[in-house]
Structure prediction request, 403 residues.
Amino acid sequence: MFHMIGQLIKVLIRYFLILINDCLICLPIKRHLIIFESFNGQDVSDNPAAIYQELVLTHPEYAPSLFFGIKGRRFEEVKRTYPEIQILKRWSFKWIWTVARAEYWVFNSRMPLWWHKNRGTTYVQTWHGTPLKKLGIDIENVEIPGTTTTEYHAAFKKESARWNDLIAPNSYSEAIFKRAFGFNNKFIRSGYPRNDVLYLDNNLDTIRHLKLKILGASDAKVVLYAPTWRDDEFIYKGRYRFDLPFDLKKFFSLVSPDTILIIRPHYLVKDHIDIRGFEKRVRILADTDINQLYLISDLLITDYSSVMFDFANLHRPMLFFPYDLDHYAGKLRGFYFNYLEECPGPIVTTATEFYKQLSVFNSEGTFANYDRQFNEFQKKFTSWEKGTAAKQVIKAIGIYEEE
Prediction:
């Protein structure tokens, strides 16, 4: 009974918002008004944040017209974290007014289709990663409650039709985005703005400062373990498990005494990782800016996560540990590229193989046998990245051009 009442209230609220939305989008846009959102208001992060920061740096006079939309449950925390940024609570009247009259939307994920765009608004879709796993229309069997595969595909096409501009990090992604999103408007071939910092801050002084700030040790060797999110690893609804595929005692016996292991988990499992006995040498950092973690890391350990594409910009070694490869590739999702042939580092599927490669890295500091493969990987996925993507995006969409 209470559930039905709750659903009815949600429907009524939606229709009320649609009514307001349809009235406001008939108004003229406000010049230089820009609303940014990352992952539907989760945080100030990713490509929208990088573009925002570049705009504030190059056009500080327009800062009063720049806003970030943040969802209600995150609003107070984000507002405290970024007091210098104008934060709007999603679905508040001020947010509605701003979104309806903004000259630009700069988002990295989809907006609800029922929320309409002003005809004068330019919708800049930054997206949020180079695709490894199938997405959009390319997903053959969508298993999302409340929708069918046909409905999901149709909704994606309708949403992408609203995008005036779509950022492509590389030619590989451009081809996939065009097909998987059904996108037929303008691509911005700039690389990802969020990766600019991996070029601009990749220097010894900045890295030492970041290590001191994050780890309390400016000279530590750092190994970053950033596995993909496994959506089938749950105990019950809302409760997930996370089991390390390697033994911490064995891990630290094979690396230098000054090595710190950073685990970058999904936020749903960050409180369920057992590091007892190794609290001084392991950090669980689910919320720290991942670019800062890239910059301080000497080695990335991952499996199928798209972090590989961003980390490759630093030209540092990577070790791939897909311990459940057969299950993941065969049953959960397909891959766009030949994972076993193109990954720019050793691929191991057992703990024994993992420890062997970890010893190689500890003694040599790299995986020399993979130099050619790494170079090919960079050529394919990072050749557009120069540390100037945010500038290129701003120029491409014509923000602040002289009238």
Observations:
- Confidence is low (pLDDT under 50) at residues 234-239.
- The two ends are 57 Å apart (CA to CA).
- The first strand starts at residue 30 and ends at 37.
- The longest helix spans residues 2-24.
